[in-house]
Specification:
278 residues, elongated
Length: 278
């Protein structure tokens, strides 16, 4: 109710009814906005909002976490090299691959894999082209790192000696298919699939008596081409237990013993179950 010169206008010049209406209108707007806000909060799904927020964090946090300086990256690399058994890691950091031995190169590859702090470490033929002593050192290193970093490790190898030393469970593949899966002890004591039996028969026996008792299984033919896989069981053309059913129908992966699965009609016969129970 002030006049242009800043003085309070006389009461006679103030329209009290208009002033009351203005105040009432303002209060109504405040109450209306408050009620609308309260209703919106009541309808708000905090679970969905939290899920969206976590998804945003996943999409954006990784880039922020791994923003490191060159000196930080160098210190982490040297520390990881030291963990995998590289002597004088700070000096070795400046060297080229040709200055490393085969075993040391393998350790460097393992160190590179550990830099990302993985939950699963996939080792594809980690001991190939290494002598027996270095193989043992690499396997010991991998087993130690598995415990220290709480890792799950997948070994891809054709060396059954490595499998026996490092694995808890074995999965045998043929022509891109899983044909047998079992705990490592059960697999070596009693391989079920004909292909697994052939693999085991190829392992040299240090005991001459066991070597005479075990007959070498020689597989005829070749592994089929992935572009021209046979109908039915993929191993049927090379299997001595092959039947007409094997040629026409592909067997499923079935558990035929505790924790032991096999993809083979022969291993699933009733007489084979009887043998497994003994």
């Amino acid at each position: 109710g002030k006049t242009p010169n800043g003085k309070v206008a006389p009461l006679a010049l103030v329209d009290l009814e208009v002033t009351q209406q203005s105040i009432s209108h303002i209060l109504d707007n405040i109450v209306s906005q408050f009620n609308a806000r309260r209703e919106a909060i009541a309808r708000f799904d905090y679970t969905v909002r939290a899920e969206r927020f976590v998804a945003w964090l996943k999409d954006n946090a990784l880039g922020e976490i791994h923003k490191v300086t060159r000196s930080m990256a160098k210190d982490t690399a040297i520390r990881t090299m030291d963990q995998v058994g590289i002597a004088e890691a700070r000096k070795r950091f400046r060297q080229y691959p040709f200055e490393f031995s085969g075993g040391m190169r393998q350790r460097i590859v393992i160190a590179i894999s550990l830099m990302a702090d993985p939950d699963i470490l996939i080792c594809d033929e980690p001991t190939t082209a290494l002598d027996v002593t270095i193989q043992a050192q690499i396997l010991e290193l991998i087993n130690r790192l598995k415990k220290e970093h709480n890792l799950s490790i997948i070994f891809i190898t054709h060396d059954l000696g490595v499998v026996a030393e490092a694995a808890d469970d074995v999965a045998v593949m043929y022509a891109g298919e899983l044909v047998e899966q079992a705990p490592v002890r059960d697999f070596f004591e009693r391989p079920l699939h004909p292909y697994s039996q052939a693999l085991m028969s190829a392992v040299p026996m240090p005991d001459p008596k066991r070597a005479r008792e075990s007959k070498r299984i020689v597989l005829q033919g070749d592994v089929p081409s992935p572009l021209n896989l046979p109908k039915g069981c993929k191993f049927a053309p090379r299997c001595k237990y092959c039947t007409q059913k094997c040629l026409e129908e592909e067997p499923a992966l079935v558990e035929v013993a505790p924790n032991q699965q096999v993809r083979c009609f022969y291993a699933r016969k009733e007489e084979r179950y009887a043998n497994l129970s003994k």
